[in-house]
Amino acid sequence: MQAAGKTQEILVLYYSHHGATRELAHHIARGIEQAKGVCARVRTVPKVSTVCEATASDIPDAGAPFVELRDLAECMALAIGSPTRFGNMAAPLKYFLDSTSELWLKGALAGKPAAVFTSTSTMHGGQESTLLSMMLPLLHHGMMIVGIPYTEAALSETREGGTPYGASHVSGMNGSTTPSTHEKALAIALGYRLAETAKKLAA
Questions:
Q1: Short-list 31, 24, 79, 39, CA closest to 188
Q2: β-strands 88-89, 78-85: how paired?
Q3: How far apart are the C-alpha atoms of 203 and 35, rounded to whole Å?
Q4: What ranges in 75-126 are assigned the alpha helix state H?
Q5: Distance between CA atoms of 197 and 34, rounded to whole angstroms?
Q6: Phi, psi for 177 (deg, rounded to 5)
Q7: How many CB atoms neighbour CB 17 within 10 A?
Q8: 84-114 as b/e, with b when 16 or more CB fall inside 10 Å?
Q9: Of 27-31, 44-48, 58-62, 190-194, minimum mean pLDDT range
Q10: How far apart are CA 111 and CA 109, in angstroms?
């Protein structure tokens, strides 16, 4: 049981190429931190190179630190995000998730809540299929998926991103479009709902 007054952390893990998914991750984190006694731990994953000899630095030049397996084990919940790649999550995030067998063998993530988010350059660029693809490894880990209910008014009003499966953003080519009012509201709502769910489960 959570100790009184102790701040718990929720991992917000993302891969972002042009910055749109990273911006959405920050809105998810804002929602998480609206829940009392909870804070967000924001992490990213390195790019995957087609050149075998190429390696990424252990510390990125800017932005969030790279994720480690212990980040998943230590946090009470997880939100993961990726831009879409042909209707699926991007290779760097998939590569990291493929490395989590150690946690799966221990059942380290079983019973923890999780949420997903994505960005696409076009309205019909594969948002829902990408969100669903990110759920699959989480379900194999025994995690409990948290979505966005239609009690969130913005879900019915949005003309951009936003789905019941998770937060999303239509970024335009090269991530040139910032999240709309509805997209921000839904990302924040998802972060808050994930945090409140995690608190209830921890208690």
A1: 31
A2: antiparallel
A3: 14
A4: 91-97, 101-106
A5: 13
A6: -100, 130
A7: 16
A8: bbeebbbbbbbebbeebeebeeeebbeebbb
A9: 58-62
A10: 6
Distance separating alpha carbons of residues 132 and 94, to the nearest angstrom: 13
Task: Residue 191: name the closest of 17, 73, 32 by CA.
Answer: 32
CATH for 8-49+56-202, options being 3.40.50.360, 1.10.1060.10, 3.20.190.10, 2.160.10.10: 3.40.50.360
CB neighbourhood size of 156 (10 A): 10
Tens digit of each residue's pLDDT (9 = 90 or more) over 181-195 = 999 999 999 999 999
- Count how many residues are written for the chain: 203
Kindly report the average pLDDT of the chain as a whole number: 91
Give the Cα-Cα-Cα angle 28, 194, 47 (nearest 5 degrees). Answer: 50
Tell me the pTM. Answer: 0.91
pLDDT at 3 over 70: no
Query: How confident is the model over 97-134, as pLDDT tens digits?
Result: 999 999 999 999 999 999 999 999 998 889 999 999 99
The SS3 of residue 22 is: helix
CA dist., res. 124 & res. 122, Å (int): 6
Q: Residue 144: exposed, middle, or buried by beta-carbon count in 10 A (0-12, 13-18, 19+)?
A: middle
